[in-house]
Amino acid sequence: MEMRKPKDIILITYLAFIVAASQFLYVQNIFMAFYIFLACCLLLGTLILINNPRPQISPALKHSAIILLQAFPFMIVMFIFFPRLEAPKWMFLNDPHAAKIGLSNTLEPGSISRLGRSDELVFRTRFSGALPPPEERYWRGPVFSYTDGKRWSQTKAKKNHLKKTDPEFSGTAYHYTLLQEPQKQNWIFALDIPAKFPGDTVRNKNYQLLASNNPQNRAEYQITSFTTYSTGLITKKEINVNLQLPGQPSKKLTNLVNNLQGPSQTPEQLIKNILNFFSNSDFYYTLRPPLMPDKPIEAFLFEHRRGFCSHYATAFVYLMRVAKIPARVVTGYQGEKFNELGDFLEIRQANAHAWAEVWLEKQGWIRIDPTAAVAPERIEQDVNIDLQIANGEVNFLRNQKQSILGKWFKHAGLMWDSVDYSWQRWIINYTSENQQSLLNILDIQHFKKLAYVLLGIFSIFTSILIFIMFYKKNISDDLVLSMYHQFCSKIATKGVIIATGEGAKDFAHRCNEKFPHLANQIDAITNLYLQIRYGKLNSADKVVKLKSLISSFKA
Amino acid sequence: MLSAIEKLLDTANQIILGKNRQLRLALCCLFAKGHLLIEDVPGVGKTTLAHTLAKLLGLEYQRIQFTSDILPADIIGSSIFNAENHQFVFHPGPIFKQMILADEINRATPKAQSALLEAMEERQISVEGNTYTLPEPFFVIATQNPSHQLGTYPLPESQLDRFLMRIELGYPDYKAERELLTGIKRYLLIEKLETQLSPPQLEVIQQKITEIYASDALLDYLQALIDFTRSSEDFPIGLSPRASLALLTAAKAWAFTEQRDSVIPEDIQAVFPAVAGHRLQPGQSDSQAIVAPILHQVKIP
User: Fold this and answer.
1) Based on the domain organization, do B78 and B174 belong to the same domain?
2) Which of chain A's residues have a Cβ under 8 Å away from the Cβ of B299?
3) CA-wise closest residue to B159 among B104, B132, B119, B103
4) B206, part of any domain
5) For B261, which of A500, A503, A536 is closest by C-beta distance?
6) ipTM of the complex model
7) Which of A150, A305, B3, B262 is spaced 20 to 30 A from A526 at the CA atom?
8) Model confidence pLDDT, tens digit, residues A51-97
9) Sign of dihedral through CA atoms A286, A292, A296, A297?
């Protein structure tokens, strides 16, 4: 080590402070904040030890912790009025969110033999009013219309192709705040369908909400959605897009559709029949489906009959298209965890879902979830992610009796999620925009006012501190001493304050010069105090007398 | 008795003009059975002060002028052969007097210095196997020039510690100096002085001072001051236990002259510069400046 002189240690300590601060470029969670606090405590302790001729470790650490805690109010003020710099992306050297797995641009259920599900957080929402019923909580993501038989993808968005008809909304309006975690795409998973959304976001023709800014930032959006809607007419081109099939459907499929359609011929009846077909035949919901590399739709419908939401959604859409009914696959999230403590919903990667949309002439696009026909629990209940991860099997939470420990554990988990939500929302997400809105709430528009407010806060804080210090000083086990301090504080109101190391007699002398009319009283109190405190023979009535003298004393 | 003390101080003030505080400190030093060191440039009245005090207290007074060639025997005395009865007879030196003025002590060699300082500490002298007790009361006022002057041997710290107090006289103020110039010569005034306090009375006072009460609260303050000097980086060494004892005794004497039967923090503060100054910063003569930061930083508990 190159540490030979005290100067070197000091230099190293300062460097360590910089290193500690730079950790926030990598990780910005509570644990890191706590860890850096401890590290700073240790470093400050080192500085104290270096500068102390008689170093002792535990008092030094205590001292440094006190210093840091004293800096806290200052930190809060600085934090509120001088928000985090918008650091350029390259500064965040190892952003773990940069390469995240989420919903992707394509859907190819046949090529997946095992669906890995993570409990990584995607977004959180907090409703300002009522929550929509669980079966309506579909969070809309990308929409897939084009298929080559195996792979499903979004149609290339041609600008002129857009015919924007605002859907007609009815029923309850749901207002909520959505805190989107960093992701690769600029998708915002709004509640199906968003009606009002912030100006910097766009709702595309598929009613998917897109953010215009960098999706790698955590962002918060205020959205209003309706779960009851009517989308109206669509263009011929759009109908064609949503009827697209890779070549002629096979005979087997046409036969199946014909069988299911029966005599009624109405699309509604066909939908009902297909869903019945899914639920009555031996279809199973599993996260470990067999591989279906060739003709996945046929293989799924006739051969394996095992799959997860994407299999059912794509198969359903395919069958609808065979029956010449416009249909498409919608992906997004469904189901969530409700955090009772923080009163918000948490949507995780494991909640990813795929469902179908069918266009009917009278109603417009309507949502059909074929998975619900096979595994209604998937829709109605929460999925036990931990068990899934452990077994690779699906496990739906039942309302079974939980042990006390389990309950407690769940409670702790909820609490932690709630704290983390607040941390992300209020600390990490606090930018200059948030500051602006906060300042607007406080009615501060310009710098001068800000300076006044800062000054005000500072003076309030200082006066509290002074009060505490005086209060502390007054608490002493010696009754006489506290009485004398009372006397001193009475005089202090007149502007004469006893100095450190100033004796009572000298103080009295000084007071008498300033207030000659009080000289007798001051002398009487001082002499009695000196007698009691330093004299040899003392009696209780002297203390009583001192008390009455001091209480009758008026500065 | 107390009025006698006040009268004594009044009289002394007429001889040594404008040095009330120093005179009171010197008297306290005497009452506390301690020895006094006066440090100042020549000619500011060190000798006059010693002489005045001796006269007012009715003590046998002896001045010993220290020079670079003075020998221990010149101070304590020596044995001389008596031809008549063929015996060596001890002839006591000038130190066998109640009040000694050791003038310019730092001009003597360390050997001579230590002879005096040993006598001060032991209050007795051993010569050739015989022990001779020094008279009671025994009080040494030593004067010294600031040690940076030429031809001086500064007293080591351990010997400075033997003096209860060190005071500086300083120049007289304008008014006092004018009075000095127009008035009668000081030595003539001293000649005429009458004893204000007899040696038996002095003994009573010295006894009474030991009975002055020091409360726990006061001792807390005293120890806080001592601890401060020990932990502060401004001083090479903190105050010794001997110094803390000296501080208490001196404060008691001061409280006595202030007509109190118990010590209060102000008493400690009054004697603190004189008691602590030379022990904390031997090389610096302004005691007040040395201890002022201590008094201003240590809280009175």
Assistant:
1) yes
2) 500-501
3) B119
4) no
5) A536
6) 0.79
7) B3
8) 777 777 888 888 888 888 888 888 887 787 776 665 554 444 444 44
9) negative
